[in-house]
Amino acid sequence: MASVVVRSGRLYGDDVRDLVIDGDRIVDVCKPGTGAGDVVVEADGCIVLPGLVDLHTHLREPGREHAETIESGSRAAAKGGYTCVHAMANTSPVADTAGVVEQVWRRGVEAGLVDVRPVGAVTTGLRGEQLAELGAMAHSAAHVRVFSDDGLCVHDPLMMRRALEYVKAFDGVIAQHAQDPRLTEGAQMNEGELSGRLGLAGWPAVAEESIIARDVLLTEHVKSRLHVCHVSTAGSVDVIRWAKGRGINVTAEATPHHLLLTEELVETFDPLYKVNPPLRRSEDVLALRAAVADGTIDIIATDHAPHPREDKDCEWAAAAMGMLGLETALGVIAEVFVKTELMDWYQVADRMSVAPARIGAVADQGQPLAVGSVANLLVWDPRTPTEFNAGSLSSRSSNSPYLGMRFPGSVRHVLFRGRLTVREAQMA
Amino acid sequence: MIGKHLLSTYDLSRDQALSILDTTAELAAVSERSVKKLPTLRGRTVVNLFFEDSTRTRLSFELAAKRLSADVITFSAKGSSVSKGESLKDTALTLEAMGADAVIIRHGASGAPYRLANAGWIGGSVINAGDGTHEHPTQALLDAFTLRRHLRGGVGDLSGARVVIVGDVLHSRVARSNVRLLHTLGAHVTLVAPPTLLPVGVESWPCTVSYHIDEALPSADAIMMLRVQAERMAGSYFPSALEYSRLYGLDARRMRALPPDAVVLHPGPMNRGMEISAEVADSPRAVIVEQVTNGVNVRMAVLYLLLGGANSETPDRADKEGV
Amino acid sequence: MPPARVVLDEADISRAVRRMAHEIIEKSRGIDQLVLLGIPTRGVHLAQRIASAIADIEDSSVPFGTLDVTLYRDDLRMRQVRALEPTSIPSEGIDHRTVILVDDVLYSGRTIRAALDALNDIGRPAAVRLAVMVDRGHRELPIRPDFVGKNLPTSQAEVVRVHFTESDESDEVLIEQVAP
């Protein structure tokens, strides 16, 4: 493999250095202009970060390849600066056996653009009735560590308790989709003044908060590890902050869309804005931003959820929930946190790479930009704003709420295990 | 004058609402003639697109369109390709290919008329004939017209009129449209319902809210009873039909607590014995049958105002007659 | 744009109204079976003035109403939707009576065609006559007035405006050149 020099980039937005990569490792960090190698990629004026790790990605394969495949999702991830994604279990068949997770893992290796880490289902068929073969998935070639019924809540408290207990044997984590099913029957959008006016069945904040409250107490009781998916309300932040204060081993994620968009978009009745959990009030958005900045919410996860056009080109109630996120995440975060100085690039690296790698127990990801680390990294160009449009996306789907919006910067280069996957904003 | 579509009472200004009511008043005279037909919309095609059963609303629109000489076709979900899983989009594209000038849509999903109007599937006007639990603007307009006739002699707005709306506000598109429109026209609206049947955030609506019907009766100029479906019991919105009827139903005793000139409205179809007793429904104070008549006239007015002028793509040419 | 030219002033209009009233009485052999219907807006003002002139002459009033023809127009699609004006038919109705349609300006004749259609849906008059303040020519339909305040040859590049104090500042008839 040719050696690569990343020339004159600002590591974490700070010191200007050359990075020399040989094989899959960073072999030298040196003064700008002094690094030597076969291939030189310019990073002058750009920011170098460790490759991003997404703990929450829907790749749709197997079963819904018309929406996304492991290969197309991997490309979208690479374009967004990711070097690792966690493929959620709600595929068809559900990723609830060693066979399915190994297949997903192998397809990821074949695509070769990012590490594809399968997430295992907590319960068989996501039905919430019986534990899936968590141990078999953990000990498979896919080394599953994150388990989730995402899309559905593990609602039965006893089932949740058992799952939390069982994964302790292999340092697994249960990633809970916190949504009380009874409180959200037929729910279409955040419950509040706007849902009342629009006549759309409300999705109360308490349906999320009550499950999180229950789960952190269960986690404390059985001394296990809990991860809360896509936190969307100010009340949830309060519960998590309280739990962390008590020393409960809980981590949490927020999505870029919950950090930028608010429920007012639903007034258009355009299903592009239909997502689970729903877009909330601006008070919630501000609380989430503060929680990400102060570490109460540990990570940014995309909940990248591709849907074919027909599932969004319809009336609101008939539309599927979810939006694309991989290719736009860093742009949104740069807009929301860096431009506003809520966080610096070190913190961005922590929330989007280091911490998710730690939670997912991914060995080769989220490592520091230092000699000896696996060369997973990205170069962000803050001088070239991006404007996303349907034609520019690598995903098979185009259900992005950010089309036509401008973000302050763009992913310029990405190295995955020492190999260029994206060069000058194009797939290498 | 009122824009291209009629999707929500939220979009109507006071002047626009009044122009609809004034147009309705002129058209009402036509409905009283022996020849109840106008050539105004000759050659225009109006589609009744009904994804939900509503014979009353469909017939009312159909009659209104026919009185204006429009060609009317009805596309109802039952027995059509819609029930075979054809999407709203494909149905819309079909109607567009048939040259529909206006689509009157009734749909179970809130916001479906907005999608139809704004997704770029069709070029014609869209009239919301009731969408989910969102809005039913022509119902509110006919209610306002009926109220204006009884409370204000048929002219002007409804400034100062006190209107009480009782029942399942949470699931009622009629209530939503009425609260907004009556407020726009200057009326004071009081919503009365058990707390379970009021939406979260109702405090911010331009109206007052009460849990007790008897408090609202003595000062009401008009009372509107909403249909309450017995199946709401299954959702535990209230314990029993009997309890609902006792606490929130309008019976003869409660009717006597109303001021002598107050009128009783109901959007129909009524659940006699549930939200309204037979004695009240058949009393001279009930203007429920008149609401039906006014419904046709209001829908004629809306069709005229939406279709009776140039299409937006036709350039505006000055009228040369009389100048 | 050249200034508007006054072709009839207040006195001219007043004389024309009185003459038309006389002609209507004479031609109708009395006023027993007459109904005056003004076409909004200024046709209504003119009809009112003719009605009161007839009342002065005959010492007896003639039924008077308004007829909005908007819903019968053939040019609806050529411009933005118009507000409807009131139609009020006198309680006597129009069946078996002589209806005098009254409008301010007769031009293409299309408004009168619409009015004839509207009358047809309201009843069956014994006869329909037409009274206008100004006939400016350029007919597009076989329609002619029975009673005319003033025949005014015009070019199609001109605009004729009839003003009545009921809706305008003064009583006058103006001709304006349309900006090319």
Describe this structure in words.
Chain A is of the alpha/beta class. In chain A, 28% of the residues lie in helices and 21% in strands. Chain A has helices at 70-79, 98-111, 134-139, 157-166, 193-198, 205-222, 234-245, 256-260, 282-294, 329-338, 345-359; strands at 4-11, 16-22, 25-30, 39-42, 47-50, 52-57, 82-87, 115-118, 146-147, 173-176, 189-190, 202-203, 226-228, 250-254, 299-300, 377-381, 386-387, 406-407, 410-416, 419-423, 426-427. In chain A, strands 1, 2, 3, 4, 5, 16, 19, 20 and 21 form a nine-stranded mixed beta sheet that branches. A five-stranded parallel beta sheet of chain A has the order 9-10-13-14-15. In chain A, helix 5 links the parallel strand 11 (189-190) and strand 12. Chain A is globular and about 60 Å long. The two termini of chain A are 15 Å apart. The model of chain A has no long low-confidence stretch (mean pLDDT 97). Chain B folds into two domains: 9-135 and 292-307, Rossmann fold (3-Layer(aba) Sandwich); 137-287, Rossmann fold, CATH 3.40.50. In chain B, strands 7-6-5-8-9 form a five-stranded parallel beta sheet. In chain B, strand 3 (102-107), helix 4 (112-118) and strand 4 form a beta-alpha-beta unit. Chain B is globular and about 55 Å long. Chain C is of the alpha/beta class and 180 residues long. Chain C has a single domain (10-154), classed as Rossmann fold (3-Layer(aba) Sandwich), CATH 3.40.50. Helices cover 27% and strands 26% of the residues of chain C. Chain C has helices spanning 10-28, 42-58, 110-122, and strands spanning 5-8, 34-38, 64-66, 98-106, 127-135, 147-151, 158-163, 172-177. In chain C, strands 3-2-4-5-6 form a five-stranded parallel beta sheet, sandwiched between helices. In chain C, strands 1-8-7 form a three-stranded antiparallel beta sheet. The radius of gyration of chain C is 16 Å and the shape is globular. The model of chain C has no long low-confidence stretch (mean pLDDT 94). Classes of the chains: A alpha/beta (428), B alpha/beta (323), C alpha/beta (180). Chains in contact: A-B, B-C.
Short structural description:
The complex is a heterotrimer of chains A (428), B (323) and C (180). With 428 residues, chain A is α/β, with parallel strands linked by helices.
